[in-house]
Every structure is written in C-alpha cells, then in structure tokens.
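Field reference: sequence -> structure
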Amino acid sequence: MISFLISIVALVLGYLIYGKVVERIFGPDERQTPAIAHPDGVDYIALPTWKVFMIQFLNIAGTGPIFGAIMGAWFGPASFLWIVFGCIFAGSVHDYISGMMSLRNDGAGLPELVGKYMGKVMRIILLVFTMLLLLMVGAVFVYSPAMILSGIGGHVIIWFVVIFIYYIIATLLPIDKIIGKVYPLFAFALIFMAVGLFVCLLIKMPHIPEVWNIGGGMESWMTAQQSDGIDLLGVKAYLTKNTLFPAMFITIACGAISGFHATQSTLMARCLKSEKLGRPVFYGSMITEGFVALVWAAVSSWFFYSGGWREVLPQDAVNEFLAQVGNTDGKTLIQYFPVPIVVKLVCSSWLGVVGGILAMLGVVAAPITSGDTALRSARLIIADFLKFDQKPITKRLMIAVPMFAAVLGLLIWQMAYPNGFNVLWQYFGWSNQTLSVFTLWTATIFLYKYKKCYWITLIPAIFMTTVSLTFILQTIF
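Structure field:
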C-alpha cells in the first residue's frame, strides 16, 4: 500500500502548505461576514465553526467519495494520482475560492457571482444550468436511497414519498433547525467509517496495485482474477467503452473536484463568523473528502484486484458467482457487485455490526443529505435571481412549490423509463464537472480583477474544460 500511504501524507501536506499559499493569495481579512452583517434567522445564521465544517463536509461528500472512488477502481492506481492532485490543486481551490467570493459578495449564490464577473448572458446560462443540475441531484438522491430502503422493507413508492416529504421540510425550515442539528452527526459517522476502514487497511496491509503498475504492469493483476481462462474483472471491456481520459475525471468527481461543491460553499458562506475560517471550512472539508475517497479507492482495489470479494463472501456465494460467469448472460465482477453492495459487504465484514449501520448511513443517509441541500441551494439561487426575501414562509413556498413539482416530474420519468436512472446519472456526472468549469473561470477572472495570482485557478480551469468537452464530444459522436 505504498502509493496509498504516500497519497494520505500528500493530502495532509497539501492542506498545510498549498492551502496556506492559496489563503495568502486570496487574503482574508477582518471585514464582517454576511452572517454577522445581516442575519435573517433562516439562511444567514452565524453557526459554530465546527458545525459549519461538518455541514460543509457532508454537503459536498454525500456518497460521492465512496461511489466515485469504488467505480474509479476500474482505472487502476491512476485513481490515486487523480484524487491527490485533483483534490489539492483543483477541488480544494475550487471550493475555497467559490466560498470566499461569496463571502466578499454578501453571500451571493454561484449564478450571481458568474453574472458579476463574467456578464449577464453567462449569468442566465449558468442559472439554467445550475438549476438543472440541482434538480437532477434532488431526483437522483430520492431514487437511489429509496431503492436501497425498499430492499430492507416497504414498497419503493412509500420510501419515495417519505424522502420527498423530508426534502420539502428541510428545504423550507431555517438552516439551524434540521440541517444544523442532524448533519454534524451524519458527517461524524461518515468520517468514523473512513477512519475505521483506514485502521483496518493498516492492520491487514493488503497487496494492492501501485502507481508504478499503471499500464502494462496491471496485466498480472487482471490475469490473477481469472477462472478457467475467463476474465472475472471485466476491466478491459469496461475501458473499451470508458477510456481513462476523460472518463476517470468524470467518474471520480467528489474527492477530486466537483462543480456541485460551489453551490454548497456559497450556501455555507452565509453561516461563517470570519473570513479567516474559510481555509479550514472550505479547503479543509475538501481535503477530508479526499481522505475518504483515498480510503475507498484502496478498499475497492483490494476488493477487486486482490480477490477481497472472496474473503467477504461466504463460499456458497463465491461458487454462485463463479458458476454464472461462463453463461451467455453471465456477469463480471463490475456488473455483479454494484457499489452499495461493495460498501455493505466490506463494512459488515471489517467493522461488524457497527460497520453495517455505518454502511447503511453511507448509502442511504448521505445521498439524502446531499439531495436536500441541493434543493435548498436551488431555492436560494432562484430567490437571489428574483430578489425574493426568504424570511417570510410564503415567499419560500412560492419558489419551492414549482421547484418540487419539477423534481417530481423527473422522478416519474425515472420510474417510467427503464434506463432513466442511468441516463440521468450519466448527464449528472458530466454537468457536475462542467459546473466546475464555470466556477473556475469565474474565480480566475475574480483573481485577475483584484490583481491576485490567477494561475491557481486558470490551470485547473483549462484542464477541466478539456475534460468536459472531450467527454461530451465522445458521448455525442
């Protein structure tokens, strides 16, 4: 696990060294934050720093650093490089600068920031784009936890209704009523799960692919996962359809860089007491998410490439998988073990009963908490655009009712269309990274305007623009 352990150290050094560089470039000062200047008791509320950090971490994390890192295993140890370099030099900078720009602009949302620094036309484009993304997040994160919960008990429609009602309540109530009280607990659970798995990895010290195995060196790892000459992994077939560039940079978003985060940084900018708290809250929460992603990248590497799936499954289940491999409709490991199953198997096996509970929180509570803050962000973005005061509940309802009607429409479409969820998820992934492109270019113009070193956002902006354009062109053609 040499590559993995070096990656962990690199993340810590990234926060201590490069994070400090980025902070000095921006230059936080003692001016009043929006939460102090004009608290409204609903969205502009000064919260304790540790609570803002926990909410920010859970908002940006959700299942992203778990699901993305596990799916990223199919790109081999290259995922370690992307998580480390992406997190330190792109994702953390993206989250920090977007949050700090919001602080400097009275808690403005992302479309308002884009409009100010890139013009009115771009503001309208980004408003539409951001709303579509946030509504997709809301719809996707009703569907996935509802499907998982229905496997435990109850009909999927019932869970749809329960989660949907919760979304409505959490979106309308003041941020300190539900989000401020419940989110820190879920965030702690997510961090505890990652730390627990990290300790287990240190104890087990499994032999997993290293960075220097990228390319031809992976052949022996794939050969080891064969049965009677049949490829069990399915990596080659997967990479034929999903080339490392740009697919890996779209698949592993949370944990490296994610445009969705900019909508959450601007949300939590309305709750900070001081600009100088920006680095631990915005940059620090992204580094923490990178740690979670690295842990799951290592775990999934062990699960698939080192035969870990054989260890966590009873022998009859192993035999059942092997028996179907050679069939006409047989499944490879990538098809047979979807991400939620990997999470459940590993956590239950390594962490026992506690692990099973944490796994359930990871694949159910985490996406729900991402969905409700996405819709809260959507409400605030529309309110900023329409100049609607959000203190009166009637004004909140005027925005929330049509917004939830749109989410309901997406949910119905998902259920009616057999491949609806997969299609929605694919475009969600692309639009998520494209949103990061808008944010990084806006940040670059902001830094240039105020005569600060804009290269820290310009280089990531050029790279992510290339990734997003290449991916959509490959998808179309």
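Note: The beta strands are 226-227, 230-231.
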